[in-house]
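Why do we bother with holo predictions? Because pocket geometry can differ from the apo form. Keep that in mind while you read this record for zinc ion.
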Amino acid sequence: MEVARMHHRIANRRKDFHLKTAHKLCDQGQTIFAEDLNTKGLTRGMLRKDCVDAAFGQFLSLTEWVCWKRGVYFAKVNPNGTSQTCPNCFAAVSKGLEVRAHDCPECGYRTHRDHAAAEMVLHRGLENVVAQGLWGTETACQVGLSGVYDLDKWRGAGIPNCEIGKPALYP
Ligand SMILES: [Zn+2]
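The structure, written out:
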């Protein structure tokens, strides 16, 4: 009983933190792209133990919901190879998890690994948006979280939430 209550309290605190973080992201931009973790091979390798767990999936669901509530555009993109591609020239730049820097031998672009991956997430998100005819021009952007990118100047694009569809409620 004690243990159950403790778990409950921890879960609540985590949810509260997720909620605050989601709102912070929404404060920063009108567009948020995130890697679609459902399509990433989470059951094997180091990713499972490390940076990606069930809590992050919950965080994404909550973020999607908060974005919907606040009229911020939210979309998931294909996560495959985001950390293994140069966001500047799109050359394949393979690196193990221990390599923290992106250093492209093709075009010489250097940045933090997570920044490069986030830029790829942004590229893909924009590609999808353009492919859907929702938007025309690319704008400046800033990093929110590792793997999560948000745009600063979405304002004016004006996609009403009803066209995006209401996301599933946070469990
Ligand atoms: Zn490059």
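Residues 136-164 have pLDDT under 50 and may be disordered.
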